[in-house]
Specification:
With about 230 residues, the protein is of the alpha/beta class. The chain folds into two domains: about 120 residues, Tetrapyrrole methylase, N-terminal domain (Cobalt-precorrin-4 Transmethylase, domain 1, 3-Layer(aba) Sandwich), CATH 3.40.1010.10; about 100 residues, Methyltransferase, Cobalt-precorrin-4 Transmethylase, Domain 2. It contains eight helices and ten strands. The strands form two sheets. A five-stranded parallel β-sheet has the order 3-2-4-1-5, sandwiched between helices. Strands 6-7-10-8-9 form a five-stranded mixed β-sheet. Helix 3 crosses helix 4. The relative contact order is 0.16.
Length: about 230
């Protein structure tokens, strides 16, 4: 009998935002797949470890996920990740794959999920708290009200068109800004809109920047910007 894969959203950083369901499935699973080259260095691992100290007693496997846009490299690594997971499913093991935030939002887990389903195995997505919802709550503000639209934008891929993106009505959530931070920041300042940014939300080294002008020209990978019309 084949095993089953669960893609678990572990939230944005604060261990207390891990859901009861995710924690239960982690405890019940035979194998815990952790994104990264070294399991103990993974942010997802550290989040779960914060509420489940016994995590190291589980069978942990690292799943390398390189930060690249090269389609060939991505395809190769996604296939390797699926093969790793499949080897345990063939043995009838239950595998929990940890992923930051929610697995349905820009998650590398989805590439593994699709491949496992194509191979005929069972796979289920378990929602986690998204980074932008956690950021809005941390800032004590709402994301949208009444008929306001919400736009979630991968900023790295849209940096060249950011001036046009910022003309969208409602609230803009800018994720994955990365190396384009300076360019994105300049566009926000020029737009005259209100913006706030959190780096490492819910983590010990969290930083909050309350205006567009305060946003640094460089920031870490786990940075998220919320832009609102004046």
């Amino acid at each position: 009998m084949s095993g089953k894969l669960f893609g678990l959203g572990v939230g944005p950083g604060d261990p207390e935002l891990l859901t009861i369901k995710a924690l239960r499935l982690i405890k019940e699973s035979d194998v815990i797949a952790v994104p990264g080259n070294v399991t103990q260095e993974s942010v997802a691992y550290q989040i779960v470890k914060g509420v489940y100290p016994e995590l190291d007693e589980k069978y942990l496997i690292p799943i390398p996920m390189p930060m690249t846009k090269d389609p060939a490299v991505l395809e190769e690594n996604h296939n390797k990740a699926a093969q790793q997971v499949e080897s345990f499913l063939r043995e009838g093991k239950q595998v929990a794959f940890l992923t930051l935030g929610d697995p349905t939002v820009y998650s590398t887990y989805l590439y593994v999920h699709k491949r496992i389903l194509e191979k005929g195995y069972e796979a289920e997505i378990v929602s986690g708290i998204t980074s932008f919802c956690a950021v809005a709550a941390r800032l004590n503000m709402g994301l949208v009200e009444m008929a306001e639209p919400l736009h979630v934008i991968p900023a790295t891929y849209n940096a060249k068109n950011m001036d046009e993106v910022l003309k969208l009505p409602g609230t803009k959530v800018l994720m994955k800004t990365g190396r384009k931070m300076e360019q994105v920041r300049e566009s926000i300042v020029n737009s005259g809109q209100k913006a706030v940014m959190i780096e490492n939300c819910g983590m010990p080294d969290e930083k909050i920047y309350e205006t567009a002008e305060a946003i640094p020209k460089q920031a870490g990978y786990y940075s998220l910007i919320i832009v609102k019309e004046q």
